[in-house]
């Protein structure tokens, strides 16, 4: 074999600067390295044609604050760890100035001849960036009170700038997983993916001359001070077995595929497409709750006043004088006009919001009806229709306070109490009577699944939905000609390891528990998913759990099955699941599932991942499970930095998720609702119940004492153009 591409790495040099290590040892190492390099250069290079360097390990550090002092401290940290070796070799044969000024006489000096001899004794920059040497064994003093970072890309760019753009060979890079992890090492895959992707970005975007990459290591082994408590190999080794077989892990398969593709080629299914939605496709916006402001207009006051302009500056009522009393009109609610004008600006065709059950029926029954609030809702939906915006109204949505229920119902068990079912049906009937002539799209329950919803509560909730649906179907549909269904949250669940059957089984299980729990009885066979019953039976049999999934009678199954006119889904993000336990804080013992993060994914401030293709995968799954059911995406969106007027993250999110919807338009009937709620006066911008606690709104508020102005965010302009086209 030709030796033209031979690379010889002399040794991996890493010495921690502390009282126990003599500075002279580094001086000796550098001198020895230089002599070996000159030896090869003078006697072997002409015939062997190889290259020689020294492998240097480094961390990366970022400033606590973007002040000049902290930035200088970061420079000092890198000088003391990497520059100690790199500057003499790659720059001028001498130590960094920050070291010389801080250590003074403690640092050995090079003679001019030695500097000349050491300078340039590397044919490439051999870099090691890994868990143990770069970070875990790093003396805390070497951080200079700054923050460690795993940004390989930034380190590569710094090396390129600091050392005159050398050719860089990454001779060691990886992270680690728990020693208990066997062959499905999904977490290790995503670390590899991050580091290799950052290397590619450094090459393509930062023009860093990186010509090679090496993963540590081939097989599991003894890892420095961590011993066998962690694993970093591509091949699994059972240290307790006699034969110590080497078995390829998922990370080995990932690395193999990556090498075959020579990187991350764009996949056809992930490429954006051009095109138009069907002509009758509806564009809308969803808000959890509209701001109900029933403050009466001044024109309803029949009294006449004088302004005491010279003394008290107040209005003084004139006794005995009154104007004719007039009827109450919808235009008297000033807040309605403002909210609807904002919707008109965006050119949406539909607006989806939830009623507040507790406002309309404070006692939870018909004994006390708040006609003022009911009239406000009547005015709101009629004004929407007046400007050609179709209202889509949800009867109930869970919220932090009393689960969104009237206080009395919440006090006596909420959905655990079967009486809440009948109370909901009475409430639904009132809403159908009062609003049904204006509302043609009803949602019985909007995203009813919450983390603490018990199986018995969900059981009653399904019966309440079904009874409300049949009530509308029998008594109101013929005259009002509307549609009604339930809206379920449907985030996609992806196997963390694409090569693992176990991960696929876990993902399927989580989807059934998250979506199928409430979807299967309505859109499927009238009962809970078989996967749920089997799993709960298995978990209960080991006497660690006692989860009772109720049974429906045959009559109840018939009542619930088919109680829909469409399938309404809200979708926000995608999560990764793994069957191997890695992080106890993110492990669900009940479902035996480990939540994993792909650290290369874009994330919102609340750490929700932006994964557009998850929407299309979810739509395909729904179609495969429930057939050609009309699908309505009733909510989709993400939070953004609440301090940013130009909400670029949300613009990116909406554009790409809409594009995925366009690819899967055969799976969607007509609806797409970006979850970017209309602003709420006198409330903070970022309040969105149970979904994203920060800014998910289209309008940025600037509230003063008497007047508030709404500044449209970047999404308004780009989203409006999308809707118009």
Automatic annotation (TrEMBL):
GO terms for molecular function: beta-glucosidase activity. The keyword Hydrolase applies. Coiled coil: none annotated. Signal peptide: none annotated. It comes from the Eukaryota. InterPro entries: GH, Glyco_hydro_1. Keywords: Glycosidase, Hydrolase. GO terms for biological process: carbohydrate metabolic process. Belongs to the glycosyl hydrolase 1 family. This is Klotho.
């Amino acid at each position: 074999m030709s030796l033209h591409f031979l690379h010889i790495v002399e040794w991996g040099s890493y010495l921690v600067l502390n009282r126990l290590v003599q500075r002279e040892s580094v001086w000796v190492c550098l001198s020895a390295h230089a002599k070996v390099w000159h030896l090869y250069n003078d006697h072997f290079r002409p015939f062997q044609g190889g290259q020689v360097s020294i492998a240097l390990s480094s961390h990366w550090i970022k400033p606590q604050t973007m002040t000049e002092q902290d930035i200088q401290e970061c420079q000092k940290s890198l000088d003391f760890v990497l520059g100690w070796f790199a500057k003499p070799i790659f720059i001028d044969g001498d130590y960094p100035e920050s070291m010389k000024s801080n250590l003074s006489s403690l640092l050995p000096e090079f003679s001019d001849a030695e500097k000349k001899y050491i300078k340039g004794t590397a044919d490439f920059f051999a870099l090691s960036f890994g868990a143990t040497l770069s970070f875990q064994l790093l003396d805390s003093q070497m951080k200079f009170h700054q923050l460690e970072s795993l940004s390989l890309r930034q380190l590569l760019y710094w090396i390129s700038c600091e050392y005159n753009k050398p050719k860089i060979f990454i001779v060691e890079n990886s992270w680690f997983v728990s020693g208990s992890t066997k062959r499905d090492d999904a977490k290790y895959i995503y670390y590899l993916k991050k580091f290799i992707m950052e290397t590619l970005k450094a090459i393509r975007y930062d023009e860093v001359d990186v010509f090679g990459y090496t993963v540590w290591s081939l097989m599991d082994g003894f890892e420095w001070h961590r011993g066998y408590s962690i694993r970093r190999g591509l091949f699994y080794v059972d240290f307790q077995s006699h034969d110590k077989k080497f078995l390829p892990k998922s990370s080995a398969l990932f690395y193999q595929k990556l090498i075959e593709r020579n990187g991350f080629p764009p996949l056809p299914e992930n490429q954006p497409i051009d095109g138009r939605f069907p002509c009758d496709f509806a564009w809308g916006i969803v808000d959890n709750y509209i701001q109900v402001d029933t403050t009466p207009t001044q024109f309803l006051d029949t009294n006449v006043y004088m302004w005491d302009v010279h003394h008290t500056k107040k209005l003084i009522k004139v006794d005995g004088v009154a104007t004719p009393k007039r009827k109450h009109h919808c235009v008297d609610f000033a807040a309605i006009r403002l909210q609807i004008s904002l919707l008109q600006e965006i050119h949406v065709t539909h607006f989806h919001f939830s009623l507040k059950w507790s406002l309309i029926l404070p006692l939870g029954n018909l004994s006390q009806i708040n006609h003022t609030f009911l009239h406000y809702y009547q005015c709101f939906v009629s004004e929407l229709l007046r400007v050609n915006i179709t209202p889509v109204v949800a009867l109930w949505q869970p919220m932090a306070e009393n689960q969104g229920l009237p206080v009395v119902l919440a006090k006596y068990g909420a959905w655990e109490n079967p009486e809440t079912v009948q109370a909901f049906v009475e409430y639904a009937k009132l809403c159908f009577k009062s609003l049904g002539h204006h509302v043609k799209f009803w949602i019985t329950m909007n995203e009813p699944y919450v983390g603490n919803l018990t199986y018995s509560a969900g059981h009653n909730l399904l019966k309440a939905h079904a009874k409300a649906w049949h009530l509308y179907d029998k008594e109101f549909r013929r005259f009002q000609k509307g549609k009604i269904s339930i809206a379920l949250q449907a985030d996609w669940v992806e196997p963390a390891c694409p090569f693992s059957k176990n991960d696929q089984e876990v993902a399927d299980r989580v989807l059934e528990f998250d979506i199928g729990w409430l979807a299967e009885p309505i859109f499927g066979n009238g009962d809970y998913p078989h996967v749920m019953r089997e799993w709960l039976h298995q978990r209960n049999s080991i006497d660690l759990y006692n989860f009772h999934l109720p049974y429906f009678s045959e009559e109840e199954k018939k009542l619930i099955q088919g109680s829909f006119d469409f399938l309404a889904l809200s979708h926000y993000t995608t999560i990764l699941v793994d069957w191997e336990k890695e992080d106890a804080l993110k492990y669900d013992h009940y479902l035996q599932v480990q939540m994993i993060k792909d650290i290369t994914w874009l994330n919102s401030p609340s750490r929700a991942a932006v994964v557009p293709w998850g929407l299309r995968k979810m739509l395909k799954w729904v179609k495969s499970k429930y057939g050609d059911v009309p699908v309505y995406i009733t909510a989709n969106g993400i939070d953004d930095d609440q301090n940013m007027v130009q909400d670029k993250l949300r613009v990116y999110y909406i554009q790409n998720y809409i594009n995925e919807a366009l690819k899967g338009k055969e799976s969607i009937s007509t609806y797409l609702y970006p979850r970017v709620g209309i602003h709420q006066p006198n409330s903070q911008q970022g309040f969105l119940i149970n979904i994203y606690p920060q800014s998910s709104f289209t309008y940025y508020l600037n509230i003063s004492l008497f007047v508030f102005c709404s500044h449209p965010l970047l999404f308004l302009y780009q989203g409006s153009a999308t809707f118009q086209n």
